[in-house]
């Protein structure tokens, strides 16, 4: 896998939770509001902030409150978003709330590693975001 991804042999093996990274981490900002507001005020970017709704590391409620605190113009009230699962039809994949340049989205049943826990929902979410399609 490493060879296929062109990862040099001298690099260490990837760890999901690396103690050294955690030990050396230094917080630069007490709040991220000003950084997000700077990006949003430029009106150049669309931002997607997402959480698995069973993530025990970064809970979705705190991130939803954070997005709400940015006081952006709401375009779509909180509503379910759907994913098509083969012949079984569409199912609720989570909830989405959309503002002018930022969207907050949850993935039902996913933890901290959304693409690992819910690969189809993650792929659908990213595809819709990158292709500027509605969730």
From TrEMBL:
EC assignment: the record states: 3.4.16.5
**Which Gene3D superfamilies is this protein grouped with?**
alpha/beta hydrolase
Protein's UniProt name: Lysosomal protective protein
Any single biological process term in GO: regulation of protein stability
Q: How does it assemble?
A: Heterodimer of a 32 kDa chain and a 20 kDa chain; disulfide-linked.
Per its UniProt entry, what is the enzyme's top EC class, as one word?
hydrolase
Q: Which Pfam families match?
A: Peptidase_S10 (PF00450)
InterPro entries cross-referenced by the UniProt entry: AB_hydrolase_fold, Peptidase_S10, Ser_caboxypep_his_AS
Function noted in UniProt: Protective protein appears to be essential for both the activity of beta-galactosidase and neuraminidase, it associates with these enzymes and exerts a protective function necessary for their stability and activity. This protein is also a carboxypeptidase and can deamidate tachykinins.
Q: Where is the signal peptide?
A: none
Q: Name one GO molecular function term.
A: serine-type carboxypeptidase activity
**Keywords noted in UniProt:** Carboxypeptidase, Hydrolase, Protease
Taxonomic path: Eukaryota, Metazoa, Chordata, Craniata, Vertebrata
The answer to whether keyword Cell inner membrane applies is: no
Q: Which family does it belong to?
A: Belongs to the peptidase S10 family.
* Superkingdom, taxonomy of origin: Eukaryota
């Amino acid at each position: 896998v490493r060879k296929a991804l062109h990862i040099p042999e001298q690099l260490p093996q990837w760890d999901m939770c690396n103690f050294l990274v955690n030990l050396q981490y230094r917080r630069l900002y007490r709040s991220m509001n000003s950084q997000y507001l700077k990006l949003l005020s430029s009106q150049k970017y669309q931002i997607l902030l997402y959480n698995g709704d069973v993530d025990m590391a970064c809970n979705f409620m705190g991130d939803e409150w954070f997005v709400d605190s940015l006081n952006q113009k709401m375009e779509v009230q909180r509503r379910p978003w759907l994913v098509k699962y083969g012949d079984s039809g569409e199912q609720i994949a989570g909830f989405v709330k959309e503002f002018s340049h930022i969207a907050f989205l949850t993935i039902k049943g996913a933890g901290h590693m959304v693409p690992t826990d819910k690969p189809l929902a993650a792929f659908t979410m990213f595809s819709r975001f990158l292709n500027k399609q509605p969730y």
